[in-house]
Amino acid sequence: NDMRGDTPAAIDDVEAALAIFTDRLGSEHTAVARTLLRHGGLLLRSGAVEQAVEAFQRSLDIYLARVGPGHPDTAVAQCRLGCALVRAGEKSDGWESVPASANSKS
User: Fold this and answer.
1) 3-state class of 82 per DSSP?
2) Which of 33, 56, 84, 92 has the most other CB atoms within 10 Å of its CB?
3) Please, how many CA atoms are within 13 Å of residue 25, restricted to the half-sphere of its CB?
4) How far apart are CA 78 and CA 61, in angstroms?
5) What does the pLDDT read at residue 92?
6) 9 vs 16, 36, 66, CA distance in Å?
7) Residues 76/100, Cβ–Cβ less than 8 Å
8) What digits encode the pLDDT tens for the residues 13-41?
9) First and final C-alpha spacing in the chain
10) DSSP codes, 15-76
11) Could you tell me if 57 and 81 are in contact, meaning their C-beta atoms sit under 8 angstroms apart?
């Protein structure tokens, strides 16, 4: 839906998908993490910065636990969380929020 500029409808769609993935696959599945990234991006676009930070943090936590710090998906989640934190004004450098283990190559 957001390709037409309908961010609220897209948020609703992604939240529905998130509920389905969580119910069927479990809250720690990488499909849930991927959907949280999408959700966070839509929330950020809509101005719900704090909610976006929460979505990106959950996604990062899942990726760190499931695929580890060296995985490309983990790096994407780190980047999006850092950008959201900067936008929220919580950090002058979003990388401050990233666990040291996520910054190392494993």
Assistant:
1) helix
2) 56
3) 16
4) 10
5) 56
6) 11, 16, 30
7) no
8) 999 999 999 999 999 999 999 999 999 99
9) 37
10) HHHHHHHHHHH-TTSHHHHHHHHHHHHHHHHHT-HHHHHHHHHHHHHHHHHHT-TTSHHHHH
11) yes
Q: How far is residue 43's CA from residue 31's CA, in Å, rounded to a whole number? A: 18
55 and 79 Cβ atoms separated by less than 8 Å: no
Number of residues in the chain: 106
What is the dihedral sign for C-alpha 89, 95, 101, 106? positive
Contacts of range 65-68, beta carbons closer than 8 Å, 24 or more positions apart: 65/28, 66/28, 66/29, 66/30, 66/33, 67/30, 68/106
Token pair recorded at residue 21 = 């993935």
pTM, whole model, 2 decimals?
Answer: 0.82
- Give me the sign of the Cα torsion angle 26, 45, 52, 82: positive
Cβ count near 5 (within 10 Å): 8
Q: Taking a C-beta distance cutoff of 8 angstroms, is the pair 26, 58 a contact?
A: no
